[in-house]
Amino acid sequence: GEANLEARELFLKAVEQEQNGALYEAIKFYRLAMQLVPDIEFKITYTRSPEGDSIGKSYIEDNEDDSKIADLLSYFQQLTLQESSIKLCQPELDLSQTHISVLPMELLMYIFRWVVSSDLDLRSLEQLSLVC
């Protein structure tokens, strides 16, 4: 529908901004697109011109780790709880202290958003992941 078209346009603007190096602008457009259609990145098919541009090619080759991180982020975004008994993380050892996994999912998501912040601080996310 109309929301899909608008989300697609916003997402493609975000891709363009990202390719131009305007990361903060790109993030704004990605957020707007995902607010309209949460799984928009999976509904867009990417086409690449045969000649391509050397900057784009080297960017992709040099940033394979970044694409792995992006894939991982997409994976985490797709995780959903199907049953209340399923936990995203569980304590490795039995502790007398309360483990983070007992917190409600909404609270965990709030904590993750606060720690990672709008700057997409992957170092903080990595540190936070050590508690799981």
Low-confidence stretches: 48-62, 80-86
Element order, helices and strands?
HHHHHHH
- What integer is the average pLDDT? 72
- Rg, rounded, reads 18 Å
Helix and strand content put the structural class at mainly alpha
User: What shape does the CA trace take?
Assistant: elongated
**Major sheet details:** none
Quick recap of the structure?
Helices cover 61% and strands 0% of the residues.
Secondary structure blueprint with pairings:
Blueprint: H1 2-19, H2 23-36, H3 40-43, H4 54-62, H5 64-78, H6 105-116, H7 122-129
Helix pairs in contact: 1-2
Provide an overview of this structure.
This protein has 132 residues and is mainly alpha-helical. Among the domains are: 2-43, no CATH class; 86-131, no CATH class. It has seven helices and no strands.
Annotation keywords:
single chain; 132 residues; mainly alpha; 61% helix; elongated
